[in-house]
Amino acid sequence: MRIEEGVELARLTTLGTGGRACAFARPTSEAEVEELLHWADERALGVAVVGLGSNLLAADDAIDLLVLKLAGELGAVEVDGDVLRVGGGAANAVALHRARAAGLGGFEFACAIPGTIGGGVWMNGGAYGGDFAGVLERALVATAGGSGWLTPAELGLGYRHSELRHGQVVMRAELRLRPRPPEEIKAEVRELNARRKAAQPTNRRTFGSVFKNPEHELSAGRMLEACGLKGHRIGGAQISPKHANFIENAGGATTAHALALMTEARRRALEQFGVRLEHEVEFLGELGLPPL
Ligand SMILES: Cc1cc2nc3c(=O)[nH]c(=O)nc-3n(C[C@H](O)[C@H](O)[C@H](O)COP(=O)(O)OP(=O)(O)OC[C@H]3O[C@@H](n4cnc5c(N)ncnc54)[C@H](O)[C@@H]3O)c2cc1C
């Protein structure tokens, strides 16, 4: 199993920022994942997985972790009756395509989520009323201590949340879907994509929603818009002029620029609405936001 040094994470995140990982590998089977977890454990090195990097802010400095990107059979999708058996590295778009071809519905919401199955389980990704918790039957999770299948309850899935931590690798998942004519699935996906395109900056480099929606009558996006933050720029990072809960790479952005924008957004939301916004985007490496 080849382990590379100094791979640039900016190439693996949709925002296009991030420093170099001290170790990087592309396991193609469960055995290879287990071997790599063992290798890292022997060196007391942390392990993290990068899916499509669509919900990820990676530190600009060197990242002292073994970073994995699942490939080969860990990206495969198979249909078995009403169950979709998917590798943790499979793109949601590929899984949705296979489900549609097999006449299986229930995963349409994922057309809006440009990530992998592993990233979706980690975040309990969701959109338009659907989420992974609603379709996931179980996931095969590897750790340095061994592998096992976990149910949504055991994974602790909640609103954009799971109890998974770095060092745990979602290698496979099983999604229980339901029969639905492919034309109906296609029509719903077309409608959801059109809604998405009208409301969000889909043609920019972003990492999706920056903050979780707070318990408030306003969504995070509306709140930040009311704070006058649309179009606000720090360095190469800008709050989207189209949707204030998105940060765009407007050219030459760094993770530090994005973090500075997030810090300012949280400060203003607290000042104006008394709300402490919680970040939805995941951090990789030594990163954090200053306390409010
Ligand atoms: C334009 C745009 C729109 C978006 N819209 C939505 C939306 O509507 N709803 C939504 O929920 N999200 C949305 N997102 C965010 C993002 O696409 C999702 O959170 C997605 O599930 C992340 O998947 P990923 O594979 O890219 O994970 P990454 O961003 O690569 O990683 C996210 C986290 O998951 C972990 N992880 C990834 N794969 C594995 C694995 N196999 N095993 C263990 N841990 C793993 C990573 O270590 C990290 O902590 C959007 C993003 C963009 C850019």
Question: How is this structure best described in words?
Answer:
There is one protein chain. With 292 residues, the chain is α+β, with helices and mostly antiparallel strands. The protein contains seven helices and 18 strands. It has helices at residues 30-42, 92-101, 117-123, 152-155, 182-199, 220-226, 255-273; strands at 7-8, 20-25, 46-49, 56-58, 63-68, 77-80, 83-87, 104-105, 126-127, 130-131, 136-143, 146-150, 169-176, 178-179, 233-234, 237-239, 247-249, 282-284. It has a five-stranded antiparallel sheet. A four-stranded mixed sheet has the order 1-2-5-3, with helices on one face. The chain is globular and about 50 Å long. The chain starts with 6 loop residues before the first strand and ends in an 8-residue tail after the last strand. The relative contact order is 0.15. The site of flavin-adenine dinucleotide (FAD) has 34 residues, from strand 3, helix 3, strand 9 and strand 13.
